[in-house]
Amino acid sequence: VADMKAEYIPPREDVIMQNELPDELYIIVSGEVEMIESELENEQTVWTFKSGDMIGEVGAFCCKPQSYTYRTKTLSQLLKIRTSNLIEAMKTRQEDNIIMIKNFLQHHKKLKGLRLGDLLHVVEEASGDPS
């Protein structure tokens, strides 16, 4: 918890840019954040996240560029967590790894393109299992 940083972000501010390789994930405390798909000059809102949702975690955990831009729709309070801090916490509390991954997967059943192999690799690295 001490490694989380609360931030207030004004409306229409990009939090994460499409094709950016993130090293942080965010929990939305209040407000709304839009997930925007950009192609050339066209932007389309794909989803709107609200209080209690997470953004940026797929790219952060899977070490891949973001597929979308995440932009605040309203004044939003976000908790920012560095991926390295979260993985370090997972190493020190290994008994919580499975619970965290199950919660993560449960939260993201609606997202496309998430590969279980990417997540298993992250869990193995966090637990120190070289296989």
UniProtKB/TrEMBL annotation:
Annotated InterPro entries: cNMP-bd_dom, cNMP-bd_dom_sf, KAT/AKT, RmlC-like_jellyroll
Record membrane topology: Multi-pass membrane protein
Look up the record and report any one GO term of the cellular component aspect.
monoatomic ion channel complex
Keyword Zinc-finger tagged: no
Keyword set, alphabetical order: Ion channel, Ion transport, Membrane, Potassium, Potassium channel, Potassium transport, Transmembrane, Transmembrane helix, Transport, Voltage-gated channel
Q: What GO molecular functions are on record for this protein?
A: voltage-gated potassium channel activity
- PROSITE patterns hit by this protein: CNMP_BINDING_3 (PS50042)
Location in the cell reads:
Membrane
Classification via SUPFAM superfamilies: cAMP-binding domain-like (SSF51206)
Q: Report which superkingdom the organism of origin falls in.
A: Eukaryota
Q: Where is the Cyclic nucleotide-binding domain?
A: 1-107
Q: What is its main location?
A: membrane
Q: What note about domains is in the entry? A: The segment S4 is probably the voltage-sensor and is characterized by a series of positively charged amino acids. The pore-forming region H5 is enclosed by the transmembrane segments S5 and S6 in the Shaker-type (1P/6TM) and contains the GYGD signature motif which seems to be involved in potassium selectivity.
This protein's assembly is summarised as: The potassium channel is composed of a homo- or heterotetrameric complex of pore-forming subunits.
Q: What is this protein called?
A: Potassium channel
Q: Which organism is it from?
A: Capsicum annuum (Capsicum pepper)
